[in-house]
C-alpha cells in the first residue's frame, strides 16, 4: 500500500498536503486508508450508512457535480502563482490550501 501515497507525493511535490477524507465531520483516513477501504468494498458501505451514497446530495450542479468546490482558475489547483512583479512563485491568494475555490455556478459570491 505504500506505493499509492508515494506516487501521489511524487506527483504533487513536497510541502503539498495529501488529501484526507472526512465524512460528515468524521475523519475516515488519508490516501492509503481510502484506497484500502475502496478495494475492500467498505468505502461504499461507509458512505451508504452515512447517507452520502451515490446520487445523494447536491448532484444538480453542472459545474461541480455537487461538490461545491472546483479547482482554482488562477493557479489550476496548484496553489502557486507568479509574483506580481514576475520575480518568483508565491502562494495563490484566490484558493484554499487544497487549490480549490467555491463553485461559481452553485455558490456565487
Summary tags:
109 residues; alpha+beta; 2 domains; two-stranded antiparallel ribbon; 3 helices; 6 strands; Thioredoxin-like_sf; Glutaredoxin domain-containing protein
Give the beta-strand count.
Answer: 6
Q: Taking strands numbered 1, 2, ... along the chain, how are they ordered across the largest sheet?
A: 1-2
Pairing-aware structural class of the strands and helices?
alpha+beta
Low-confidence stretches: none
Question: Residue-averaged pLDDT, rounded?
Answer: 78
Q: In angstroms, what is the radius of gyration?
A: 17 Å
Spatial separation of the terminal alpha carbons: 41 Å
Main beta sheet strand tally, sense and closure: 2 strands, antiparallel
- Number of helices in the DSSP assignment: 3
Principal-axis shape:
flat
Secondary-structure element string:
HEEHHEEEE
Helix content: 25-40%
Q: Domain count, please report it.
A: 2
Tell me the fraction of residues in β-strands, as a range: 15-25%
Amino acid at each position: 500500500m505504500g506505493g499509492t501515497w508515494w506516487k501521489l507525493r511524487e506527483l504533487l511535490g513536497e510541502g503539498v498536503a495529501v488529501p484526507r477524507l472526512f465524512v460528515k465531520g468524521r475523519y475516515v483516513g488519508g490516501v492509503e486508508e481510502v484506497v484500502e477501504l475502496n478495494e475492500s468494498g467498505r468505502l461504499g458501505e461507509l458512505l451508504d450508512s452515512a447517507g452520502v451514497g451515490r446520487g445523494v446530495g447536491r448532484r444538480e450542479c453542472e459545474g461541480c457535480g455537487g461538490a461545491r468546490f472546483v479547482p482554482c482558475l488562477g493557479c489550476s489547483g496548484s496553489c502557486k502563482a507568479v509574483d506580481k512583479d514576475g520575480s518568483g512563485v508565491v502562494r495563490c491568494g484566490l484558493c484554499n490550501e487544497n487549490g480549490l475555490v467555491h463553485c461559481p455556478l452553485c455558490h456565487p459570491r
